[in-house]
Amino acid sequence: MTDTRTTNPGELLERMVVVARLWERLGPLHPGRAPLDRILQQMLLFSRMTDRLGIAAPRNPLMRAVLREAELGCVNCTASGRCRTWLDGHAAEDDYREFCPNEGLFAVLPRQENVNRPYAVE
Q: What residues does each domain of the chain span?
């Protein structure tokens, strides 16, 4: 039987909840809110990108480490606007490999099989 789970959404979701709770604890004028907001936005883009690309849940420690490295790469990405546009489907002619600093890492991560993703890059 083929495992058709995407990246473990529970782990990423848990990390996002921790950041969101920290963000909530800070007052609305606290200077630390802006960086946390950016991190949350980038984590959301990472989740959307792995879903769109059909990245499968890693089955071994090495692939989990590669996935975490890609997640950290998204947090530091400077092409988030272009990424968001691509993920929203407004730039279908673009190839994410042209702007995504994680394109090399995404290339080595296992993909889901037997999942119909009409918007996924072939």
A: 9-108
